[in-house]
Amino acid sequence: MLCCMPGVSFVPALLVSWSSAAFIISYVMAVLAGHIEPLVPYISDTGTKPPESGVFGFMINISALLASITMYIRYLLIEKQNESSHFVRSSCNMFTLCVGLMGCTGMGIVATFQELAVPSVHDIGALVAFGSGVVYITLQSMISYKSCPRWNTYFVCHIRMAISVISCIAFIPMIVFASKISMTKIDWTPGEKDYTYHFMSAICEWTVAFGFIFFFLTFIRDFQRFSVRISTEIHEE
Length: 237
What we know:
One of its GO terms (biological process) is regulation of autophagy. It is a multi-pass membrane protein. Residues 8-225 form the CWH43-like N-terminal domain. This is DRAM1 protein. Belongs to the DRAM/TMEM150 family. The chain is mostly helical. It has one domain. It is built from seven helices and no strands. Helix 1 packs antiparallel against helix 6, helix 4 (119-146) runs antiparallel to helix 5 (154-179) and helix 5 (154-179) packs antiparallel against helix 6 (195-217). The radius of gyration is 19 Å and the shape is elongated. The termini are far apart. The model is unreliable at 230-237 (pLDDT under 50).
């Protein structure tokens, strides 16, 4: 089905599908193995112990790669549109891309350095991934408004901005509640110390994560009218 999609719209579609599957598969495996409680664990909790840890690490790394490709194509698309419309500075577009790629790097760190093995590095990676991701989608929402009405409808812009606002609102309590947790563990039980902080922080984390997924879903229509041509020139000496 993906190969039948026009332009390069299959790229964000694949990103959304793969990332959703990464979260769901690792969650189901961790619950069935009895490694986590099914009620709102951290995303990283679902990929801490084997065998789900291998699946989680592999799939999240692929998601980071697909996100990088999607962001770069989005950058090229805006640059192309900007040639005739001049709705955003090229430096702003480049800065937005760099912020997004920083978030992808954070995803790679989260997937590689697992929560219980190297918690400090894992937490830094998660902070970079979520923080940069929130900034990226907010900047993209602002760029989308600037491209209206020629390149985007106001309805799509409103959707993107709404997702950005919800993600920003959820990101702050996610960090605040997580900072109040005094221990690093994955087998949380309702009623124990710091469980409320864990529960609220985890809800916010899932909200931000799926906010990213729904945001990239809105790129599909934009990517339908854009194709990338790769040309190779061989010079004979």
